[in-house]
Amino acid sequence: MSISKRSNTYHLRRRVPRRYRDVEPRDTVWISLHTDSETVAKSKADRAWGQMIEAWEARLAGDTNDAEARYAAAQELARVRGFRYLDIGRVSSLPVAELVERVEAVSAPAGAPDMAEATALLGTTQEPHITVTRALEHYWTLAREKTFGKSEDQLRRWRNPRIKAVRNFVAVVGDKAIDSITRDDMLDFRQMWLERIEGGEVTANSANKDLIHLGDILKTVNTMKRLGLDLPLGELSFKEGETRTRPLFSVEWIKTRLLAPGALDGLNAEARGLLLGMVNTGYRPSEGAALTADTIRLDTDVPHISIEPTGRQLKSQYARRVIPLTGVSLEAFRAFPEGFPRYRDSATLSATVNKYLRGKGLLETPDHSFYSLRHSFEDRMLAAGIDDRIRRDLFGHRLDRERYGKGVSLEHVAKLVAGFAL
């Protein structure tokens, strides 16, 4: 690195790296350090060279047929040169002094203005049009904080409804640029859902989920890309009817049908273990499937399982909890002390269990499912007179008041659960 004084001002002189020859015609560049002090010049040299590299990288990024990449490169180049990117209309409206400052900041090697810098500082790069499907591609990156801690299966279940929402919108409206979406487009999309609701194909809840997911994608891209669009997304949701509650298995049904000798013999061993484990714990199927040797604790005074965010994201902060093992659930975990690897990273558990129960006539009604065991556990706690806080702690639900203290001991909870365990 060479620092030389030219006309009372120190400059940095360096050869242009081969990587940037396509965007920098000079073999050697002289970069003013804007000082007549050699000490100050030396302290500024590395920073000045770093800014030069950033500018060349921005030019390289802009040397593409991708309109979005060119626009992003122009924004970055303007930033490196000390300015905020503004489109030509806003640049032309700037006070004369600020406009002149931008013009004078455009470097002119060999007497010719650098066109990449001129485009970036004067705002002549055409703003790209992002289509709805392209917005979805951006969304995966822009909303990535929402995926932190999710398992592969959780990530799949998070992505699929958003993919479906975009696919449905494009089928009705087309793959329009998001800055061209009109209120009529959104109303046409809503009308499609209204007709399906009226035809009994879907519920209002399903339609609203599509509207919510599409709106989230568009709003996230609009905000994070700083597009400044006024998106026509208001007042589109449908009024939902009463929330359907999942039916629960009666104690008699569990005892005489599900736990009858040989009733579950045709179900594969791990699925059977998870079903029996759910009977006296009420865990969510995904929580049971995620358990490992570290979170199944049998060699203690009170055998228990610990629901933790290990390799997956919990449904909420309240889902992290410890549940004592009793009755058939304790026996199930003694058979699988290291967990259920077949279903740890698979989304097939509920479908497998439900198919088996349905085929064997083990569902109490057509509306029952594997998940009904969770609600049966909750109802049995209620019938046993278990305190509300203990019920919520075991079930992984939020307490509708402030929590004080650590709560009762695991030993005490185990005795309570053992009182109604099957």
What does this protein structure show overall?
This protein has helices at residues 38-62, 67-80, 88-92, 96-105, 115-122, 132-142, 152-173, 183-198, 204-224, 251-258, 269-279, 285-289, 327-335, 341-344, 349-359, 372-383, 388-395, 410-418, and strands spanning 2-6, 9-15, 28-32, 296-297, 304-307, 321-324. The chain is mostly helical and 422 residues long. The protein has three domains: 2-122, no CATH class; 132-224; 251-418, hpI Integrase, Chain A (Orthogonal Bundle). Helix 11 packs antiparallel against helix 13. The model has no long low-confidence stretch (mean pLDDT 84).
What is the element string, with H for helices and E for strands? EEEHHHHHHHHHHHHEEEHHHHHH
Radius of gyration: 32 Å
Q: How many β-strands, per DSSP?
A: 6
Give the domain tally. Answer: 3
Helical residue percent band: 40-55%
**Strand percentage:** 5-15%
CATH topology call of the largest domain: hpI Integrase, Chain A
Query: How many DSSP helices?
Result: 18
Q: Termini, distance in Å?
A: 79 Å
Reading side by side through the largest sheet, how are the strands ordered? 1-2-3
Shape: elongated
Mean pLDDT: 84
CATH architecture of the largest domain: Orthogonal Bundle
Question: Low-confidence spans: pLDDT under 50, at least 5 residues?
Answer: none
- Classified in CATH, the superfamily of the largest domain is Intergrase catalytic core
